[in-house]
Write a structure and sequence with these properties.
The protein is globular, with a radius of gyration of 19 Å. The chain has one domain (8-269). By secondary structure, the chain is an all-alpha fold. The protein has helices spanning 8-15, 17-32, 41-60, 74-95, 104-108, 116-144, 154-176, 182-195, 211-214, 218-232, 238-262, 266-269. Helix content is 69%, strand content 0%.
C-alpha cells in the first residue's frame, strides 16, 4: 500500500481485516484466559470502577461538575465518560514502545504487515470502550434520565481519538524498538496529559491566562464535546469538530508514513 496515500491509515484495516480481527480476538481472549470469571471481567471491572468513583467523588468529596443538579452520582458519570475515552489513547500508547519487541516473530516474517499491529491495539481499546459506553448509558439513564439524541454524535468524537492513537502508536513503536527507555517517558507523558485534560474538571475551570496553551491539547476539545453530546444535549460545533478530524487524520497519516519508512530496519534490531 502506498504510504503517501492520505487514505492509507484507514484503508489499512480494510485490506488486512481478515488478519487484524482474529489477532484482536486472540488478544482479548488471552487477557481473560485462565481466570475464574473469564470475559465477565470485561464488564465487572468498569462496574467496580464506576462504583468506586461514585463513592469517592460524589459521597466523600461531594464533587460537582458545575451544573445545577442535585444528583450526587453525576460527577462520577462525568469522570467515567472522560476516562473511558482517554483510556483508549493512554492504554494503547503505554504499550506502544514495546509493541514491536513483543511481536518479534511477526517482524521476522517479511510478508507480515507489522503496521497492522497498531490497528490491533486500537481495536482492543475500542472493544473496552464499547462495553464501558454501554455501562455509562445505562447508569446515566438511571441517574439522569434517558440520553438525548445528540448521543448519535459520539462516534464522530471517537474517530479523531482513534486517528490520534494510531498515529501515536506508529511514531512511538518505531522509535521504541531502538530506544528502550522510551516506555518510561511515555508513561510520564500519558499521566501528565490525563491531568491536563478536562476529565477531573471542566475546561472552564482553567485560569484564563492558561487557556491559550490549554486549547492546544486536542483531548481538551474532544472530551468537552463528548460531555456536550452525552449530558447537555449539545451537538458539536461543526468547525471545531472538522478541525479535530482534519488534524487527527493528518497526524495519523504522518505517523503511518514515518512507520513505513522506518520498518525496513526493524528485522535487524530484533
Amino acid at each position: 500500500m502506498n504510504s503517501y496515500n492520505p487514505l492509507a491509515p484507514l484503508a489499512l484495516i480494510w485490506r488486512y481485516r481478515e488478519l487484524a480481527l482474529p489477532l484482536t480476538g486472540r488478544r482479548i481472549s488471552a487477557r481473560y484466559r485462565g481466570s475464574l470469571l473469564g470475559m465477565l471481567w470485561a464488564v465487572l471491572n468498569p462496574l467496580l470502577m464506576l462504583g468506586i468513583y461514585t463513592f469517592i467523588f460524589s459521597v466523600v468529596f461531594q464533587s460537582k461538575w458545575g451544573i445545577d443538579r442535585g444528583d450526587k452520582p453525576e460527577f462520577a458519570l462525568f469522570l467515567f465518560s472522560g476516562l473511558i475515552l482517554y483510556s483508549v489513547f493512554s492504554e494503547c500508547l503505554n504499550e506502544a514502545p514495546s509493541l514491536l519487541l513483543n511481536n518479534k516473530l511477526y517482524i521476522k516474517q517479511l510478508v507480515f504487515p507489522t503496521e497492522i499491529l497498531a490497528w490491533v491495539s486500537v481495536l482492543n481499546g475500542l472493544f473496552n470502550l464499547v462495553i464501558n459506553f454501554v455501562i455509562l448509558v445505562i447508569f446515566q439513564t438511571v441517574v439522569m434520565g434517558p440520553p438525548t439524541p445528540t448521543l448519535l454524535y459520539f462516534p464522530l468524537i471517537v474517530l479523531p481519538i482513534v486517528l490520534i492513537t494510531l498515529g501515536s502508536i506508529w511514531f512511538v513503536a518505531s522509535i521504541g524498538i531502538y530506544l528502550r527507555d522510551l516506555g518510561h517517558i511515555v508513561r510520564l507523558f500519558t499521566t501528565a496529559l490525563l491531568f491536563l485534560s478536562p476529565i477531573f474538571y471542566p475546561a472552564s475551570r482553567v485560569p484564563e491566562r492558561f487557556q491559550a496553551y490549554y486549547s492546544l491539547n486536542p483531548f481538551g476539545h474532544l472530551l468537552e464535546m463528548s460531555k456536550g453530546v452525552l449530558f447537555y444535549g449539545k451537538a458539536p460545533e461543526p468547525i471545531l469538530l472538522g478541525a479535530c478530524l482534519a488534524g487527527s487524520w493528518a497526524f495519523s497519516w504522518l505517523g503511518y508514513m514515518w512507520f513505513m519508512r522506518a520498518k525496513k530496519g526493524f528485522a535487524d534490531v530484533v
